[in-house]
Amino acid sequence: MNKPLNGIKIIDFTHVQAGPACTQLLAWFGADVIKVERPGAGDVTRSQLRDIPDVDALYFTMLNSNKRSLTLDTKKPEGKAVLEKLIKESDVLVENFGPGALDRMGFTWERIQELNPKMILASVKGFSDGHEYEDLKVYENVAQCAGGAASTTGWWKGEESGPMISAAALGDSNTGMHLAIGILTAYIGRQQTGKGQKVAVAMQDAVLNLCRVKMRDQLRLDKLGYLEEYPQYPHESFSDVVPRGGNAGGGGQPGWILKCKGWETDPNAYIYFTVQGHAWPPICDAIGKPEWKTDPLYMTPKARQPHIMDIFATIEDWLKDKTKFDAVNILRKFDIPCAPVFSMKELLNDKSLRASGSIVEVPHKERGSYWTVGSPIKFSDLKPIITGSPLLGENTDEVLAELGYSSAEIAAMHEAKAV
Ligand code: COA
């Protein structure tokens, strides 16, 4: 099938999660993504958290589908020469090495531009260029702490009240998605100017971008001294920093995670329940409290807020003989924004997600097949076909031949352990 990014050649010099998530997305949409890996070892995720001995780990397979793998020791002269040739023929080079690693390898931005002025160099780093922490190496949780997610997530009192990491990859895959937008923007820019450019996304910035509403809250707190939608309001005091708000709704409507039937034994027997300000009467009807519709203590968001947790407790009481699915099936009829708390097991087996291609089964040469998360972006004229991740060096000879190397030259490179 002809795909929109067909013809875009990407050198995928990425590892772990942030960079691979970006290039995988571009590969799904048609780019030729050549993953460059160190001979003998490859991306560290190939061997991390393995579930089958000696077979590429799911950590790798789920972030590197639709790519080709070229092994290349870019610290050896033969390897450098191959990379130079590749740079001359490619459109984009994506990397997420530690700060300065690409320069130390001899591939500074100046050198890359000399080799190919149309090249787009896309980088992920922990912190932005010139930042006082620009020299730091960074992983997911470090970025969540640096970008404001950790200080604003979790409980504000009690033994579990410290900063909390989200399970969602806000530092890694999120940064990769930002980078993909940057690459495509630079590519469109190049169509206008004929010139490549450097695109960089810092993990701290990508996390902060998702914490925009928490920055909003800091600015409001600075002005007002309180935040009316937080569970601390109005009975507890605020300091001068945005507090952690537990499961409170982050927007203008209160919400909370509520227990449903079976919560005592099922860790995910919960729903998220949202109280939209303008939709109070249907909530009262849904939970069997029609008298609340006209009670001044309940009629307006302002009147409800001081006892919102008591309101949630009443709704929880209504939920106690309903499973999370029963509850959502009732509440959806009243147009109340809500959803079950799904476990990973439920998501993996979800018929709708499988039908839409958000969960897909993919063939793999050594594991047989594996389930993975497919494209969350849906198009009317493109259905991404997810193919298996490549074995280490699976496409080395093929890529070298495409670059014009003869069989004898390729054999010599293998001999020198440069590929
Ligand atoms: N051939 C030869 N050498 C190679 C190579 C290849 N094909 N691929 C990588 N290398 C070398 C690099 O040149 C570097 O060498 P140097 O440090 O001697 O210059 C070395 O491998 C390791 O690079 P580095 O990226 O620093 O690895 P690390 O394992 O120490 O650190 C991270 C891992 C993720 C912490 C670090 O890469 C990082 O901070 N990246 C940026 C932020 C990021 O993306 N983090 C999220 C990852 S999900």
Structure report:
By secondary structure, the protein is of the alpha/beta class. Helices cover 35% and strands 13% of the residues. The protein is built from 17 helices and eleven strands. It has helices at 18-28, 58-61, 77-89, 101-104, 109-115, 140-146, 173-193, 203-210, 212-224, 280-286, 301-304, 308-319, 324-331, 344-348, 351-356, 396-402, 407-415, and strands spanning 9-13, 32-37, 68-71, 92-95, 120-125, 198-202, 255-259, 270-274, 338-340, 359-364, 368-373. It has a six-stranded parallel sheet, with helices on both faces. Helix 1 (18-28) crosses helix 7 and helix 6 (140-146) crosses helix 8 (203-210). It is elongated. It starts with 8 loop residues before the first strand and ends with a helix. Coenzyme A is lined by residues 16-19, 36-38, 72-75, 96-98, 101, 104-105, 124-126, 137-139, 172.
Bound molecules: coenzyme A
- Helical stretch tally: 17
One letter per element, helices H and strands E, the order comes to EHEHEHEHHEHHEHHEEHHHHEHHEEHH
C-alpha geometry: elongated
Q: Average pLDDT across residues?
A: 97
Report the end-to-end length measured between terminal Cα atoms. Answer: 31 Å
Largest sheet: 6 strands, parallel
Q: What proportion of the residues is helical, as a percent range? A: 25-40%
Radius of gyration: 26 Å
Give the class from helix and strand content and strand pairing. Answer: alpha/beta
Point out poorly predicted stretches: none
